[in-house]
Please model this.
Amino acid sequence: MSTVLLFGSTGTLGRQVRLLLSGDPRVSRLLCPGRAELDLLVAAPGDVAGLLRTVRPAVVLNCAGRMSGGQDELLRGNALATAVLLEAIAAAAPGARYVRLGSAAEYGPGEPGRSQHESDRARPTGPYGVSHLAGTLLVERSPVDGVSLRIFNLAGPGVPADSVLGRARDLLRTAAGHIDLGPLGAYRDFVDVRDVAAAVVRAAFVPELSERVLNVGSGRAVPVREAVALLAAQIGFTGEVRESAPEHSRSRAVEWSRAGTRRVERALGWRAAIPLADSLKAMM
Model:
């Protein structure tokens, strides 16, 4: 049985990971420090190392991060926090497994009809993708036993308001005649947060990790317009969905995204299981 240290346990994905771990017989102790106890955005490696020496975790999971903000905030939340954790683990808990959450935004634009694979060249189009790519590169080059999970577009319970489905959900719930979203012609790989949490837990406990980067997606590209229409039907919205709002900065220049899942299936024995319709229903 293992002690697990989980950062970001109150976030969209962290809540689901915590739920799974709380009932996992492999976990003897689950520690979930909040920002009041240890804030990864400002902590130094020595601060984290002190905590690690005290709790002696076998697994360190980082489900914290930034989805929005300035370049400095994104780099601190998604890259610097990883650097701090890796340095602290190497010094104070060198045998611990480290799992971080990356993003499909690291890839940048995909080629229509083709899946994006971990061996593909990363070409992020904005600071968000750059910040996550920096975190992934740190994991790849670290002596720590770690992996970066490249998460594709989230669906399911608790999806944040600054995601495409989260924005649509919040507008559809309150609007009467119409809602205004950005362009919806892109194709996205939507994966349920509960499936992602299952992948995180598998990455935490798989005996050997031969890969440092793993895609976590459904392996299916869906038109965003279709997903929003399904969500509207679930909510009972019968008005007009307009595509007149400015395009979100994270989505700009990326018209196609689909995860290649062979590597994660081989490394973790994981495959997305929850259909998109069920994920959208859970968002209500």
Summary: The mean pLDDT is 95. The domain at 2-282 is CATH 3.40.50.720 (Rossmann fold). The CA atoms of residues 139 and 230 lie 37 Å apart.
